[in-house]
Amino acid sequence: MKYLRGMHMHTAIVAIVLAFFVFSALSYSQAPDATTGAAPAEYQPTGSIREYFLGAWKLVSTEYKYSDGHTTPYPDLGRDAVGFVMYTPSGHMCAQLMKPGRPRWSEANTPTAPEAASALDGFASYCGAFEIREKEHIVIHRPETAWSPNYPGTTQERPYHLVNQDRFFFRGTGTEKQKDGTEVPVIWTITWERLK
Q: Is this model's pTM higher than 0.70 or not?
């Protein structure tokens, strides 16, 4: 009887040790590289990075992440924002982001001054040229037309991360202005999915 109890204990210990090694191996395969601290390798397209971006993409989500860890969608666009970004073989791009449910004008083609002013609330749009910097993992947008008169002529850097063949996101750091005028640091993310 003691011998059988010893066998059961031995079997349980072996099972626990094996489970530990299997779990460790699975965790290691998904963890950052222990020697470099680098994240797991991202998706590598079969063609060039430039070819990967060509076409039309639909907005999946926007996000601000704050230093305390909580996240929100972009405040001016909301949780249900819609948008598109397009890249052409000629090296041009266009992007539009919009908050749904913006107030409609009382007259379709002749808004009042307040209606015209509020039309830009929850809307961003620009078009221009683009450039890919593969070594830096950055897409450069160079707006030539835009919803804001301050945007044309600027250089907009968008650090990219490829998730799979049909999804990528831009992520970077910035600040968000608070109601009291102070600015807080944020990590912003915009996720896109390929239109088919």
A: yes
Q: Are 124 and 97 in contact (CB under 8 A)?
A: yes
Residue-range domain boundaries for the chain: 1-41, 49-194
Other C-beta atoms closer than 10 Å to the C-beta of 98 total 18
Instruction: Write out the chain's pLDDT in tens, 196 residues.
Output: 444 344 344 443 333 333 333 333 333 333 333 333 344 568 999 999 999 999 999 999 999 999 999 999 998 999 999 999 999 999 999 999 999 998 889 998 899 999 988 888 999 999 999 999 999 999 999 999 999 999 999 999 999 999 999 999 999 999 998 889 999 999 999 999 999 9
Please say whether the beta carbons of 53 and 132 come within 8 A. Answer: yes
First and final CA of the chain: distance in angstroms?
A: 67
Beta bridge mates, 127? 94, 145
Residue type (1 letter), 191: T
User: What is the three-class DSSP state of 188?
Assistant: strand
How far is Cα 189 from Cα 104, in angstroms, rounded to an integer?
29
Answer CATH for 49-194 from 1.10.10, 1.10.3470, 2.40.128, 2.60.40 = 2.40.128
